[in-house]
Amino acid sequence: MTATEPQSPRYFTEYLPRLCSVSICVEVQRQGLEKLLIKDNHLLVSTKTQTISIPLAGKTADYDDILSFARVENGFITLKVPAVADKAANSTDQLTSTDDLIWSIRDLKQHPKGVFECAACCQPIADLSKIRKLHSMPSEMWYEMMEFWHCHKPTNGNYTNDKIANRFNSLKPASDTLIVGAYYFVAPSLPSIFTENQFVKCAGCHQILGEQENNNHKLLKWKLALRDRNTQQYCSCLIYLYSYLLDSIASTAVRFFLVKSQSTRVLLWCFNFGIDVTFSSSYLKNCLKVMYIDDESEVSKFLEQNDGEGTNQRSLHNRYEVVDLEDDMMTETINEFNTINEKLPESQRQFNQWKVSYLGRRL
Question: How big is the CA angle at 259 (ends 303 and 304), to the nearest 5 degrees?
Fold first, then answer.
């Protein structure tokens, strides 16, 4: 009979840029623990049978022996160490930047001959070799902010406020241009797509790819696939909720959200944002720390305590915002939350009635 290798313990590290620190939690028993050190941004946990190397979420100095500074109890090691400051991470613009998201302008420039296809039938939708210009989409609230950009609004003459608004309050990509948003593209008219009842559909299989908005074709990233040579890349629908939450936090400071589909409701508390985490061979960059309640009775109790069903309006006096998802998107969202929650050390999974999870891009 061959001996089995010791199982790697659950671990969790969290880089908090505004506190400039890295929090660490590892499931390991005190007996048998011999040494604890940090080298090359890895925590090395030495026991009598193995040495475990754990990647840290943030950059730190090397420490030869930090066992005496760690808290070891109930089968867990917890400690917090200073991180090397990252000035860029303190910027709100950096936190809401789309540069690190999939199929950003920076990402697409690495695929000059790539082709976007319908994820359902592989029908070619947009050939990047024929796209000469890539433009970034303004903030998701750019349209609402237009009123504040015009300080003097003429009421007569050739340039009335209505004429100015009609000219500038819309984005219209040229035939060789693609406007890139966090979770969608604004595309020109293409022979591979058509509109029906305000939906944009694939000409090949009639799958819904997006919607018509302000006479533009809004293509959702997770409805597409990017083919470049012999590789095909897909986008998760989680990018929508991630982008929506981050943009809402940055613009309105709302932290509570009721995410719902036709059959399911989940309550979210966005506890922290712009953080990096590592756990069970996964690395999430610039992510949201999310507390969530998926028990329907607990969700109902929270809503009753906060004056009913809330509102979709973005205003500070509201305790929470409502986010609507399709059933398949809701299923993938809950599965992602639960999968990450189960990978965390047991001491990090729960905060009172709230489960703990993270939402961000896997690296």
Answer: 5
Name the segment(s) of the chain with CATH classification 2.170.150: 103-149+168-234
Question: What pLDDT, on a 0 to 100 scale, did the predictor assign at position 186?
Answer: 94
Q: How many Å separate Cα 285 from the centre of its chain?
A: 9
Per-residue exposure over 110-128, b if at least 16 CB sit within 10 Å of its own CB, e if not: ebeebbbbbbbeebebbeb
Per residue in 61-78, pLDDT tens? 999 988 888 998 888 889
pLDDT at 314: 42
**What is the model's pLDDT at position 107?**
93
Residue 2's Cβ-count burial label (10 Å; 0-12, 13-18, 19+) is: exposed
pTM here is 0.82
Count CA atoms within 13 Å of residue 45 on its CB side. Answer: 25
* pLDDT tens-place string over residues 260-294: 999 999 999 998 888 999 998 789 988 999 999 99
pLDDT for residue 6: 55
Token pair listed for 313:
């309006």
Pair of tokens at residue 285 = 């960059």
Q: Assign a CATH topology to domain 11-86.
A: Immunoglobulin-like (2.60.40)
User: 103-149+168-234 belongs to which CATH class?
Assistant: mainly beta
Q: What is the mean pLDDT of residues 335-351?
A: 94
**Cβ pair 113, 230 in contact under 8 A:** no
